[in-house]
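Q: A small favour: would you put together sequence and structure tokens for a protein?
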Amino acid sequence: MSGAWRNWLFGAVLAAALVGAALHWGEVRDVADLVTRARPAWLGLAILCQLSTYAAVAGGWAQVLNRADTPRGLLPLMRIAVTKLFADQALPSAGMAGNLLLIDQLRALGVKRGPAVAALLITMIGYYAAYVVFAVAMLILLWLHDRATPLMAGVVTLFLCVAIAIPWLALWLRGRGIRPLPEWVEKIGFVRSLLDTVSRAPGELLRDRWLIGGVTLCNALVFLADAGTLFACLRALGTAPSFATCFIALIMASIVVTLGPIPLGFGSFEATSVATLRLLGVPFGAAFAGTMLFRLLTLWVPLLPGLVLVRGAMRKKGLDAAAAPLRRHPD
């Protein structure tokens, strides 16, 4: 990624998060009050579920890096997972914002560009593969509950088109190699940089079905852990929904956020989650309180470490860029 685009992306992530936090600070205070009424055991389970999401994401990258003979520790990869998941929520880009940051941060760990790009592409394939399976499973569960509507089917269908198109486009760019693009596309520096980056992914890794399957499983665990977090939040507040109900609400709300243009999914996630839980029989008050507690744990609590880590990455990139001329032309 070029320096200009990298700086723009980091800046956009920070701006989106800060503006959103400022506009919704009163909401954060209100939701934080829920913690004082939550049952400690279930709240602790919700926190453990959220920590497991970062471990699962890092575990998928570790599989790719181990296969590429460039192993890295799980803790540094979990730090990257915090910034990636934060960037994915801060910028409405179907997950692409965090994917672009991933390569930069793996490179900062000393990973060569080829394995770093492979980690990006294979994770993208695994993420959307798991997402598609769970979206279809959610629609089937809604149908079995006799709660599926044409609007829900339409939203899921649109999402399936997006979820299939994004990894297909990445693999198509990878297959083109470094062949020239149409002239009008070549003028877009960001597209040229992306094509050059994607073309460096080692083909043997992208053809490893066992590796792709393992990374897909890690991404599936992330969705299940998020559904478990919502389940534990509702139980912490004294409501006893089924896990299937929480899974349906989590996937439906996630799809709406993925397709929507709103940074951090403000309003859209909450409204969709509450409406879906209510549709499945959860009282409105419990659905609202549980969803807001879920958002506190998954969005607001990671906000500060996410900002700190992204800002640290920006600072490190700036220092590296300033030192580069000195390394090329030592005194």
